[in-house]
Amino acid sequence: MGRRWSVGLLWLALLAGPAAANETLEPELREIERLGYAAHWRESDERIQALADRQDELSREQRQRLEYVRLRNLGIAGRLEEAVEGFDRLLREEMPAKLKVKAFSTAASIAANLEDWTMAFTWLGEALSYVPEVPDDAPRVLGMASYLHSLVGETDKARELALRGLTMVEESGDQRAICHALSDLALAEELVGKHAESGRLRRRQMEVCDEAGDRIFSANARYGVGKMLAAQGRPEEGLAWVRQAQADFEESGFEAGAWSARLVVAECLIATDRELDHAHDLLVDALRYYRERDSQIAVAEAERLLADLAEHRGDPVQALRHLKGAAAASEAAERAARERQLAYLQVEFDTRLKERQIALLEAEKELAALQVTATRRRQWLLAAGVVALLATALLLVVLLHRAFLERRRYRWQSERDSLTGLLNYQQVRRLGQEAFARAHGNGRPFTAIVLDIDWFKEVNDRYGHAAGDEALRALGGWIAEVVEGRGIAGRSGGDEFTILLEGTEEDAGALLDRLRARMEAVSVFGQTVHFSISAGICQDRDSNGTLEHLVHEADQALYRAKYAGRDRTVCAGDTAPQAGGGGLVVVGSGIEFGRHISERCLSEIREAQVVFCLTDPFSLAMVQGLRPDAINLGAYYAEGKDRRITYREIDDAIMAQVRAGKRVCAVFYGHPGVFADVPHAVIRKARAEGIRARMEPGISAEACLYADLGIDPGRRGVQSMEATHFLHYDRVPDTAGLVLLWQVALSGDLSCSRFHPEREGLQALVDRLLRWYPADHEVILYEAARLPIQEPRIERLALQALPDAHYEEYTTLVIPPLGDLEPVDATGPAATGTAG
After folding, report:
1. Which of 18, 194, 411, 686 is least surrounded by CB atoms within 10 angstroms?
2. Options 140, 262, 293, 643, the catalytic residue
């Protein structure tokens, strides 16, 4: 690598803040990441080692964050191969998008410094694909893209990307991000020869990075200023800057940056005719360092400077020897540059045009070489032309053959699951549709099998994801053996597999018997993992049926097998009652489904035969992602329709399935038992008919309210009522405590048909509250956040301003206490008690 790329390792310092966590070790993790920011990577590593024995106490995301910091530190320490291997393993895991994009960006930088260009550009492409999910990290990815584009000669594109990144971070005001973006743009300007502009950016970078406390990037800025001054013929000034940068790099442990700075120090010493022996030692050491790392541009630069030094000392023989070494290294660097460009093109283009463009590039190089040879040796023009044509033809044949093999490999990869080698979900459905149509046309039976591993999550949690992957890989191999071309087998996703075959349910059952007989325990890292499978079978018995319906019925039979105890096969047509019979469970989705839904509730949703859902659109979409057959109860609502009629219609729909002996799960927004009519009604009805029914709690809006407003209801007490109930009944608020009025937008709506606020109802509510509270008493309009990316609404205003405020159907009115608590009369009964 050359000096231009060595400084690229500065990308390793781009580490964003961690996601919030409640574990007791979270402060230590944050400190480890902070030390990485401050370039104290050695101390960061020591703290990571200290946590080695406590890995089991960390969540998966925390372990991934810790591993990311460790791998980044390896890159800074120059252990690039270990870092790349580690990132290759880490990036195969599922992780939050924000951490994923950081890991891809850092890994791409390290791969580039290791000159694994295919891997570098592949990881860069992955990082760019995540940018829409984490726009805050877009500047970091743009900077990384700018750096790699500069390495393949796309300098204008590199400058454009860096400028876009700087514009984005300047709007955010994040000093550390601005520091990094200025470094990217300065490097891009330097590569297009705009040294003055680069110097101006470097000076600004220095100020911003110093303020942000980023020592490596501050040193990088000083290095850039010194290098620019040396290039402008001002070596005396440049020397001081670069020596300071070298010292900062060495103190921070950033080896690549320190060696780049030593080259410029030597260059300045030679130009000023000072400390020539020291310059010679620096260059000899740098030459050895860069040769060990096969960094040809840096080798060429060191050889050129040694030649200048030898000439300066009047030693032409040594000068000539070093110039030859510089020429050889430059030629090797040019070859490496061509390899980089080819790698870039191979990743950038995945169509036949890519192969043709690469073939043309190779042919043009060969023809250019032949043209130079022809110019030198005109007498061999005809022979050289024939040789060139033959070489070009051979090259094209080789490339076409290679393209054919690559297309075949890509086709195989696009149709197969990478872990098990079985067909992927799309191919199973495509080939299955053709086989299904043939079976219908020939009047032959057709059967679908859906199976998965029992307690697969527990396998992952107990033995690790490597054990889970090995179980999936082994099961995929056994499925391929027992199917043996007699059907279509593939992995549907996760631990679920689908098998389609022309045959009856009996044939499918026999196949599963052979599969179970073939299964055995797998060993991973010295651990023996035993597992079983459950399966559902459905034979097509309807000439008008569809493959999707057939697979769905097999999937439902799989759920029945799970519910009946696992490690068994259930046919869709089986009429025997399942263990325990039907029943009803009502679960809460919480206010934010992704954060609040419990594992038990998720299990109930997955295992139920029928799922009803009455939630917000976001939660509904997530439930239907788990259960595409989930029934949306929101369809029963209509503008102007009495909600009491809607509630009874929903009751009837749920109870119809419960009475049919089905295992029913009803999912309701928030806590299903808080301000909810239907959940309590259907549970009462089911129990009255002797049917098992229960409720799983959820996170309510009231629970979120206490957390978001920082209110402890135990301090002053709380009175919680529905607004219309308060307005139309003789209820007296406890002004010394907290008062919550729910569904305030619908105040006064006795028709139960309104969905929007009316000013008259709100004014009536205010008039009633003015009996106990002053008009200027500060109240709060609260709306819980329904997505992690949202903020709760907390609007403070005077009581008298309520009629003119904005409301949603779910807006809550929070009335803080008025005045101080009055103690019980000392002569009363409480005088003999003790304070709690």
Report:
1. 411
2. 643
Residue 643 annotated in active site: yes
Active-site residue 669, yes or no?
Answer: yes
- The answer to whether the beta carbons of residues 76 and 45 sit under 8 Å apart is no
Can 729 be counted among the known catalytic residues? no
Is residue 110 domain-shared with residue 211, that is, in the same domain?
yes
- 397/407 Cα distance (integer angstroms): 15
Say which of 647, 773, 782, 807 is annotated catalytic. 647
DSSP string, 675-714: S-SHHHHHHHHHHHTT--EEE-----HHHHHHHHHT--HH
CATH number for the domain spanning 471: value is 3.30.70.270
- What are the tens digits of pLDDT across the range 465-484? 899 999 999 999 999 999 98
CA–CA dist 86, 71 (Å, integer):
7
Give the residue numbers spanning the domain of 34: 3-344
- Where residue 780 falls (left for φ over 0; alpha for ψ -120 to 50; beta otherwise) is beta
Amino acid (one-letter) located at 811: T
Helix 117-130 vs helix 97-113: crossing angle, to nearest 10: 160
User: Which pair of structure tokens corresponds to residue 769?
Assistant: 């509250």
The CATH number covering residue 164 comes to 1.25.40.10
pLDDT tens track for 522-560: 998 889 999 999 999 999 987 668 899 899 999 989 988
C-beta of residue 214 within 8 angstroms of C-beta of residue 37: yes
Q: What is the DSSP letter of 609?
A: S
Instruction: Indicate yes or no: pTM above 0.85.
Output: no
Which residue among 669, 782, 807, 810 is the active-site one?
Answer: 669
Handedness of CA 15, 17, 21, 24 (dihedral sign): positive
Beta strand 533-539 with 446-453: parallel, antiparallel or unpaired? antiparallel
Are residue 524 and residue 595 in the same domain, yes or no?
no
